[in-house]
Design a protein that fits this description.
hpI Integrase, Chain A; 2 domains; 3-stranded antiparallel β-sheet; 15 helices
Length: about 350
């Protein structure tokens, strides 16, 4: 076998290339480049337009920080160490509150926001799966400081809301809605009339995070108040249900005002930083204790593919009728969908 640098073979190769019209130097030229990797300044608007409103709202503060610090850099330039360094800058800039966790949540969201960018870039063929965002770990989540409220605290909250403020009718409706449904704040704000109210079966349609949609039982009393609220405050067809007395739709600021006011009258509310999400904890804890995990999971609107609960959850999903039965026991008021059979005393233990 002739060596690869044999002069005779090289001369023959050059002759063949010349006859084909090729310059030997072209063989050593760079191969055609793939898609050009964009900068963060160029690519963040692309992802912003591709995600849901909720995702955009959550990640935009962190994308703005990335654009400010790395706007002119290409997506394939930052190293894992640089990502960790920028995460520490984000952490240092967090506003310290009484319920703050030293910026751990901000770092977690920053890493999630960055991974969202890179996951889209991978799908677009701009970077490899083995990108720097996959090599940076999120901080481990600490146990939540929220917990279920005892009955006497719920009484204090509802009494204070009903006897203070500039619209106690609205505030008590909000508290009743969240206590019965265990819905998140966004679920209440997204209610539309009349399509999200099934008056005959006493169901409300909740549009919550992750673009999930579900029907949730409510008591006949709450349904009557929701319908009356929509009528008296002139909610337009297809418009937002919850409104101020002047007909203007409420926003998340109403909740901020409500819990700030409650904290002024109930010092423990301010000290523990209680919000409407604590009502979700309270109701779901009661449902789980009295009706079991499967029904509490359905009551919460958690899908069967979320959380480390094992494959059993696939086989023990609760029905809407069972959720209605739990609500019936919680409120002490008959519900049209409640299943027949075993009962639970109002705020008590399982019946036989």
């Amino acid at each position: 076998m002739n060596p690869p640098d044999d002069p005779v073979r090289l001369a023959a190769a050059r002759l063949v290339l010349e006859k084909l019209g090729f310059d030997p130097a072209e063989l050593f030229a760079a191969s055609p480049a793939g898609p050009q990797v964009p900068t963060f300044e160029e690519y963040i608007p692309v992802v912003t337009a591709a995600v849901s409103v909720g995702t955009r709202r959550t990640y935009e503060p962190y994308w703005s920080k990335i654009r400010l610090d790395w706007g002119s850099r290409r997506l394939d330039e930052p190293t894992p160490s640089e990502i960790k360094q920028l995460a520490e800058v984000v952490k240092a800039g967090v506003v310290v509150r009484r319920n703050s966790r030293n910026g751990r949540g901000a770092v977690e969201l920053f890493v999630s926001a960055l991974r969202c960018l890179y996951s889209h870039a991978v799908a677009d063929g701009l970077v490899d799966d083995d990108n720097p965002s996959t090599k940076v770990q999120k901080p481990a989540r600490l146990p939540s400081g929220r917990h279920a409220l005892p009955a006497h605290r719920l009484v204090e909250i509802n009494h204070t809301a009903a006897t203070t403020g500039n619209d106690p009718e609205l505030d008590t409706l909000l508290l009743r809605f969240h206590t019965e449904t265990a819905a998140r704040r966004g679920g209440a704000l997204a209610l539309r009339t009349p399509g999200d109210l099934d008056a005959e079966q006493c169901l409300v349609r909740l549009h919550e995070k992750g673009e999930t949609v579900r029907w949730q039982p409510v008591s006949p009393t709450l349904m009557a108040h929701l319908l009356a609220h929509a009528k008296h405050r002139q909610a337009p067809h297809g418009g937002q249900l919850l409104r101020y007395e002047n007909g203007r739709p409420i926003s998340g600021r109403r909740y901020d005002y409500l819990w700030t006011r409650l904290g002024q009258h109930l010092p423990w509310v301010a000290t523990q930083q209680v919000t409407v999400h604590w009502l979700r904890y309270t109701t779901l804890t009661w449902v789980e204790r009295n009706f079991g995990y499967a029904i509490a999971r359905a009551y919460a609107g958690h899908s069967s593919n979320t959380g480390a609960v094992g494959a059993t959850a696939t086989y023990v999903q609760a029905t809407l009728q069972e959720v209605a039965a739990a609500l019936q026991a919680l409120c002490g008021e008959a519900h049209p969908l409640a299943a027949q059979g075993g009962s639970v005393d109002h705020l008590g233990a399982r019946g036989t």
